[in-house]
Write a structure and sequence with these properties.
The structure is a homodimer. The first copy, chain A, is of the alpha+beta class. The first copy, chain A, is about 30% helix and about 40% strand. A four-stranded antiparallel beta sheet of chain A has the order 2-3-1-4.
Chain lengths: ~110, ~110
């Protein structure tokens, strides 16, 4: 999970997977913030979920990185019915652009908490 | 490179590498913004650089993802003398916490630009 004081995920040693989701918001709200919060809470309950880091700037650009144990857990979350609905709404109204990159984390280092 | 209108990197098809840098700023400025801009410009000149996406929120949490052709280009940039100096200053004064995860991007998809 993420450290509640910093927002940096507390992760095990690699290897594990990262899903890098970079997006640009439209001006449309329509329940966006509630859905975003709900998706983070729901993702955290899925098997293989390791943590999440998420930032959105005032100009609408956002990066959310979620971390997963393996490819199977990523695919499971992707196919979750409520997540599918959120993806569809994101495409239709909330995001002007959105890219997902699925990557295998090989090395990690850092300081602080 | 990043699309200047959105901040989303325009990347080739995988495989390639991502360096996910998540950090929490201290209250210390001391040339931080200038150094951050300089490092992005300098990184973009390095062999193997593919693009960068960067967001920092008002609460101090930031995520910068840089994309690279291979591990060798990541290591070359890491060892660059000016980057080394920036890393050192980051550790000493600009960041309360900072984690780097080096990952191999296996799949990518999205819409918009």
């Amino acid at each position: 999970m993420s450290d509640p004081t910093t927002g940096i995920a507390d992760l095990p040693a690699p290897p594990f997977y990262a899903v890098i989701f970079t997006s640009v918001r439209t001006q449309v709200d329509e329940g966006y913030a509630e859905m975003a919060d709900k998706m983070v809470a729901l993702a955290a309950q899925q098997p293989g979920f390791l943590g999440v880091e998420s930032v959105r700037a005032d100009n609408g650009l956002g990066i959310t990185v979620s971390y997963w144990q393996d490819e199977a857990s990523i695919k499971g979350w992707r196919q979750h019915a409520e997540h599918q609905l959120a993806i569809q709404k994101g495409h239709q109204q909330w995001y002007e652009a959105a890219f997902t990159r699925v990557a295998k984390v090989e090395r990690a280092y850092g300081f602080g908490k």
